[in-house]
Amino acid sequence: MQGTVRALFVTPEKKAKPVSLNSVETIDRGFDGDFHAKVANRRQILIMSGSVLDDLRLEPGAVFENVVVDGLDVMSFAEGQQLRMGEALLEVTIPCEPCGMMDRIRYGLQETLQGRRGVFARVITKGTVHVGDSVILCPKSVAENSLV
Fold first, then answer.
1. Contact, 148 vs 116, CB < 8 A?
2. What is the distance, to the nearest Å, from the Cα of residue 35 to the centroid of all Cα atoms in its chain?
C-alpha cells in the first residue's frame, strides 16, 4: 500500500500555530523544530489522512497534525507497523484521541474526530521528508506473522 505526503507541519511551541513546510528533517524524537520532539515518547509525529480533513472541510494543519497523507487510511495502521516516508523510517505507536482543544477549532469536532484523528509514529531511521514523497507501508515481518 502506498500514499503521498500532501502537507507537513511543525508546531514550534505549545499552543502555537502550526508552520507549513515543504520538507522537514526527522531527528531522534520527531520532526526537527516541533515542540513534541523535545520529549522522547510515543507521540512524536502525528499522521492524519487527507480524506478526513476533506470530509470535514478543514485545511491541512487546522487540527495540529504533522503530516497529511493522501491515498491511505492511517487509522488502519497497526501499532508496531513500519512505514517509509521519504528518507525516514517510522513506526506506528498509538492512535491519537481527539482532545477538548478540537472543540475550540469547531464545536463538536472532538466527537466527530473519534476514531479518525490519526496515528502517532516514532522515528526509527532519520531522514528528510518532502511534500509529494511516497508513504509506503512496510510488510509485517515473517516473525510477526508467525505469532498471529
1. no
2. 15
The pLDDT assigned to 142 comes to 37
State the residue range of the domain holding 35: 2-147
Question: Are 49 and 118 in contact, with CB atoms under 8 Å apart?
Answer: yes
Grid coordinates in use for 18? Answer: 502550526
The domain total for the chain is 1
Chunked in runs of 10, what are the mean pLDDT values of the chain (148 residues)? 94 89 94 83 90 96 96 95 96 93 92 95 95 91 42
d(CA 3, CA 132): 9
Q: 137 by DSSP, 3-state: which? A: strand
Q: What is the pTM of this model?
A: 0.90
Could you give the C-alpha distances from 118 to 65, 69, 78, 141, 147, in angstroms and in order?
8, 10, 12, 23, 26
Which runs of consecutive H residues, i.e. helices, occur in the chain?
Answer: 50-55, 101-105, 109-112, 142-147
Return the CATH number at 90: 2.40.33.20
